[in-house]
TrEMBL record:
PROSITE patterns referenced in this protein's UniProt entry, alphabetically: RCK_N
Protein name according to UniProt: RCK N-terminal domain-containing protein
Compartmental location: Membrane
Gene Ontology cellular component annotations, sorted alphabetically: membrane
Gene3D superfamilies, sorted: 1.10.287.70, NAD(P)-binding Rossmann-like Domain
Short name of any one Pfam family annotated for the protein: BK_channel_a
Domain of life: Eukaryota
UniProt source species: Paramecium tetraurelia
Main location class: membrane
Length: 1140
């Protein structure tokens, strides 16, 4: 057999064992096998005991054959499980295997050696061969795994073990009395009585004379002394357990799906998550939520889950790292697994490390116990961006269905984007949070805002009716028919390539049925999304769709079961992939190809961590990127696999954690710069900027800080805040002034040292003087970050157990209030200096917003909640609990996280293959392309524009139709300034009612391909209408001209009216060209002025520098002259003193 054939044979053998193992792990199979095993064991035990009374019915060939067949069935089960097991040693040492060996091996050895395999007689050797079947009484211990309570399991185990011990002891003494005792010949039940008496009286009334019988009695007493206290102690421990949750088990049902929630679950996080999970907008189907935590719930969390609306929440106390506790919550049958993190952790790196290791442990458990073949989705929170990168790399291709929410990345991107689009925080928060219908409200602004809160983002299938239509046509049809806003699409090709596009404009939806087109819509409920998926379809098409995909939810669920993956690597092989080195393979083409593909996948996962590039968008067959190799790291892990002992695994996990904490900060940023990702997508300087060069003692009245953003505070990854404010799709960008009491670390500054116009002022927003030094008078936005200073002294006590440490690492209510108190003081300081400035504030606890509210607003908060206050509606407040709602929404809508990344960070203009044949409208023609060319940016970004004058005092729907049809811009909502209605503070209005009257105090939130120019205020005006009419006339003329040239001139008959129309069209064309030339001249003049302004600004800076340099020289000269005069005076004084 050749090497290739041998390898193929071994591979098939491993696959067969894997399939067998998964088959025997199924509950249905185990139930049948257990019932058969216990039935055969009962028959053998009963027959042996009955044969001690009347042996004649069983001393024949028929029973001998039947008895051998029963033993062969039991042996075949043991051999089958031995072959399919993954760990040979652990299976041999298991209680099930030991029982099988003790009861079956002696039987076959004796029967074969005596040549009595099919003979039964009264020979003592034959009787002993049947005697060992009494050990099979322990097989009834299998029934305890079908019990729910730990106490019942322990009681069952005690009864079965005691009964088996009594029967085995009685059988041994009975066997001994038949052949060794000369006096005592009693029935079997007498020996049962004797054994019970011996156990209870510790050997009293011994009537046996033989030494063997007495040795058996001594062994019986020793077993009783060992077994009874141990089992009783276990029972007492379970009974005396104070926690009801530590004894609770969940029994899953196919009719009711359940999810399992792990990690750090605080009161605020649980309340927000469950409120979203069980909201009626997600359907009325029943579902269960299982919480698995090592410690019992605190008083507040316990009272929360005991409320009637959360009756489907079940809390189980247990360690998620232990298989028995994972089995208690039926995690292998869960619909999804949710992992929450401590968002205010004092050690984010350790928190992410703990989350990643927990996910790896659970995935390893599911690999062994998930026999259904259905992929279980992971929805998890990661604090820092490098933690997200390491998670994707550590599991390689096992993250297809995982939703990873990087809290710091999303939070900082949202805060930064809010500086460009005020009100965005409220807009995004409302879209990812379900809301009910508003009550009768006297305030008009609150009613509009509340109605907008009811809209959410849904992903729905676009039916065949829209195939071949442009995206803008689809937007207009859906808005007219359903009053929903289609703002993006996802095109999937037959080879599973996917492309998400936000407002691609005039793109033609593919008419090929092999391409699936999903739409991202803003609508009120799921029923509307389902109606859209079957819009204008025939009855047969509807039945086919329901049969194949079902409703929108079924369609999304079907995505979990496609693309069966190949055999996954072990945990420690993934660890090697995590840090960029691969195991040496034989010099074969197949091995080398696999290694190269693995290297590409590593880089693609890295590039996916920022949401810039979707991994599946790249064709793995093309060498687009190469990952750097580091072959000398972690060589000691090569020989460690899943079958290693616990000590080796603990050592390996410690090495993982140490490596994660040391090197987690540098890889992702270096790779992005090395691949020119940031250079392609952001405004950068030509040279590295030093921190000292941009550190100023004061920027008051400085021309460097004009219309700038002040960032109060620092985070580890500042680049997440800088990127949205330095994206290349921005024509102009605001300067950024960092105000903090400590300078950025070398690592922090290394991330942003190539970005322009970033300055640092040492100080704090708690001091008005420091705010003035940051030139707050000229600032347009202020961003206040929540501090993270939490004392870690209490974590240093080694005597504390893990539960106490975990509980102490979670913020108490007082600590949350302390962090928010600093934020409140900063906010009030800024308001005193500049009352009308836009402030974006981060809060830890939503209840603390009350300290920033007036009396009337406080009443609104008490009556309707914090998210209905003017401060929140204006988009000035960010709560960390928003990420908990997003975590729940990612369970219902897997694509939501990626869509948010595109909205916040912006579209990246690149040459990427989509895998789908996309069509564009260009000069009235449809041109097919299979890729997005570098100069054809078809996806849009988020902007704000004022309401054009032509649409003021007109309904919103007119502006919507005009922007979509004429500008290929999709409006999403309104940011209504003070005085737009009865509001005194701005507020966001998502998808306003079509008849909402627009005012000059409204700002429109739009998705556009390019940043709208300042002339957007004149859109829809007379000049634009005239130009549009002339364009239409020009198109008519061109059409007539092309038609006339294609026909025979002899057949053309043009009447006088047509001649006049053609002449009029020519005249319109000439006038249009003149107007366009004038517009072009104006644009050139404006560009010239901008250039002159920039040159003037540079000259002013140079002049200022020269003046400062001249002043320094003058001061030096004056100081030198003063020192010289002082020296002369001093010398003269010395002379006079000497003369005197």
């Amino acid at each position: 057999m050749s090497d290739d054939e041998e390898k193929e044979f071994k591979h098939k053998q491993r696959q067969t064992k894997q399939q067998l193992y998964q088959f025997i792990q199924r509950d249905e199979f185990n139930l049948i096998i257990d019932c058969i095993n216990m039935s055969i064991s009962f028959i053998l035990i009963f027959v042996y005991i009955y044969s001690t009374y009347e042996p004649e019915p069983f001393q024949n060939a028929t029973w001998a054959v039947f008895n051998t067949i029963l033993h062969l069935l039991l042996l075949s089960e043991w051999i089958f499980k031995l072959y399919a097991t993954k760990n040979f040693q652990s299976f041999i040492m298991s209680s099930e295997s030991i029982i099988a060996i003790l009861s079956l091996l002696p039987y076959f050895i004796i029967k074969i050696s005596t040549l009595k395999l099919f003979i039964e007689d009264d020979d003592k050797v034959n009787i002993f061969a049947n005697l060992v079947c009494l050990f099979r009484g322990l097989e009834f211990d299998r029934m305890k795994k079908y019990l729910d309570s730990e106490v019942n399991k322990q009681l069952t185990s005690i009864m079965i073990t005691t009964a088996t011990l009594v029967l085995c002891a009685a059988g041994a003494l009975h066997f001994n009395s038949l052949f060794l005792e000369t006096v005592l010949h009693f029935k079997f039940h007498y020996f049962i009585y004797f054994v019970m008496t011996t156990i209870s009286t510790m050997g009293y009334e011994n009537k046996f004379s033989s030494a063997i019988s007495r040795v058996l009695i001594i062994i019986l007493v020793l077993l009783a002394l060992t077994f009874v206290p141990y089992q009783t102690g276990q029972l007492i421990r379970h009974l005396s357990s104070k926690s009801y949750y530590a004894r609770l088990n969940y029994k899953s049902s196919q009719a009711v799906p359940h999810i399992v929630i792990l990690g750090t679950i605080s009161l605020n996080a649980a309340e927000n998550f469950f409120k979203e999970l069980f909201h009626e907008d997600h359907g009325l189907a029943q579902k269960h939520a299982i919480i698995l935590c090592p410690q019992r719930p605190d008083v507040n969390l316990e009272s929360l889950i005991q409320q009637p609306e959360y009756s489907n929440v079940i809390y189980i106390q247990g360690d998620p790292h232990l298989d028995k506790d994972l089995k208690r919550c039926q995690i292998e049958k869960a619909k999804a697994i949710i992992i929450m993190c401590n968002k205010q952790s004092s050690d984010p790196t350790a928190e992410d490390s703990k989350t990643i290791l927990l996910a790896i442990v659970i995935k390893s458990y599911l690999k062994q116990h998930n026999t259904t073949g259905v992929k279980i989705r992971f929805c998890m929170q990661i604090l820092r961006q490098e933690g997200k990168t390491h998670y994707f790399l550590s599991l390689n291709k096992q993250t297809k269905f995982d939703q990873v929410i990087c809290i710091e990345e999303l939070k900082m991107s949202l805060l930064a984007k809010s500086c460009l689009c005020p009100g965005l925080i409220a807009f995004i928060s409302n879209l990812i949070t379900s809301s009910g219908n508003p009550p009768n409200l006297p305030q008009k602004w609150l009613n509009e805002y509340w109605i907008g809160q009811g809209f959410e983002i849904y992903k729905t299938l676009l039916p065949n009716f829209f195939r071949g239509k442009s995206f803008t046509q689809t937007v207009l049809i859906l808005y007219k028919q359903f009053q929903v806003i289609l703002f993006g699409i996802e095109i999937s090709s037959p080879n599973d390539y996917e492309k998400n596009l936000l407002n691609p404009g005039d793109i033609i939806l593919p008419s090929n049925p092999n391409y699936r087109v999903m739409g991202y819509i803003i609508c009120k409920d799921k029923e509307t999304a389902d109606e859209i998926s079957i819009y204008k379809q025939s009855h047969q098409d509807k039945m086919n769709q329901i049969k194949s995909d079902g409703t929108t939810r079924r369609l999304l669920e079907s995505e979990e079961t496609v693309n069966i993956r190949p055999r996954r690597p072990t945990i420690f092989q993934n660890v090697k992939t995590l840090f960029g080195f691969s195991q040496a393979e034989p010099d074969q083409k197949k091995g080398n190809g696999a290694k190269n593909e693995n290297s590409k996948n590593v880089v693609l996962h890295l590039k996916n961590q920022r949401g810039w590039v979707k991994t599946d968008m790249f064709d793995p067959s093309q060498d687009t990127l190469i990952h750097p190799k580091e072959n000398e790291k972690f060589d000691q892990l090569e020989e460690i696999d899943e079958n290693s002992d616990d000590q080796q695994k603990d050592i390996a996990e410690m090495q993982i954690k140490e490596k994660f904490q040391k090197d987690t900060a540098r890889n992702w940023l270096q790779l992005d710069f090395n691949n020119n990702k940031i250079e392609k997508t952001s405004h950068l300087t030509n040279e590295k900027v030093g921190l000292k060069d941009v550190t100023f003692k004061t920027l008051q009245d400085s021309i460097l800080a004009q219309n700038h953003v002040i960032l109060c505070g620092l985070v580890a990854n500042l680049i997440n805040f800088i990127l949205p404010l330095r994206s290349k799709y921005l024509i102009t960008y605001p300067p950024i002034v960092i105000l903090n009491d400590q300078e950025p670390s070398e690592k922090q500054w290394a991330q942003i040292c190539y970005f322009p116009e970033i300055y640092f002022v040492k100080g704090t927003a708690m001091s008005q003087r420091d705010l003035i030094r940051a030139n707050i008078e000229q600032a347009i936005r202020v961003v206040i970050l929540s501090p993270k200073e939490i004392s870690t002294a209490k974590f240093e006590d080694d005597s504390q157990d893990n539960d106490q440490i975990i509980q102490q690492q979670q913020l108490t209510k007082d600590q949350e209030d302390l962090l928010d108190a600093k934020t409140i003081f900063k906010y009030r300081n800024i308001i005193r200096l500049k009352p009308h400035i836009q402030i974006v504030t981060e809060f830890v606890s939503p209840s603390n917003i009350q300290f920033l509210l007036f009396d009337k607003d406080y009443d609104l908060m008490k009556q309707y909640g914090y998210n209905h206050t003017p401060l929140f509606a204006s988009g000035q407040i960010y709560f960390s609990s928003v990420m908990d709602g997003l975590l729940c929404q990612s369970f219902y809508n897997p694509a939501l996280v990626q869509v948010l990344y595109q909205l916040l960070v912006g579209n990246i203009k690149e040459n990427e293959k989509t895998g789908a044949m996309l069509q564009y409208q260009s000069k009235g023609l449809n041109q097919s392309k299979d890729f997005i060319s570098e100069d054809k940016d078809i996806s849009s970004n988020l902007f704000q524009i004022p309401v054009p004058k032509a649409f003021q005092n007109k309904p919103f729907q007119k502006l919507f139709y005009h922007l979509v049809k004429m500008k290929q811009i999709v409006p999403l909502g309104l940011y209504r300034l003070a005085g737009a209605t009865d509001n005194k503070v701005p507020y966001i209005c998502t998808n306003p009612e079509p008849n909402t009257i627009l005012t000059n105090k409204d700002i429109v939130l739009v998705l556009a391909k390019e940043m709208p120019q300042s002339d957007s205020i004149n859109w829809g005006g007379p000049l634009e209408e005239m130009v549009q009419q002339q364009k239409q006339a020009h198109n008519i003329y061109k059409k007539k001209e092309s038609t006339s040239s294609s026909e025979d001139n002899d057949l053309i008959q043009i009447n006088d009216n047509n001649d006049k129309e053609v002449q009029r069209a020519k005249q319109y064309n000439n006038e249009t060209e003149q107007v366009m030339k004038k517009i072009q001249n104006v644009i050139e003049d404006v560009q010239k002025l901008e250039k002159e302004s920039e040159d003037f600004q540079k000259k002013m800076i140079d002049r200022q520098n020269r003046i400062l340099a001249r002043l320094r020289d003058v001061f030096k000269e004056e100081l030198l002259q003063f020192q010289q005069k002082r020296a002369e005076v001093s010398q003269n004084f010395t002379y006079k003193s000497s003369d005197d």
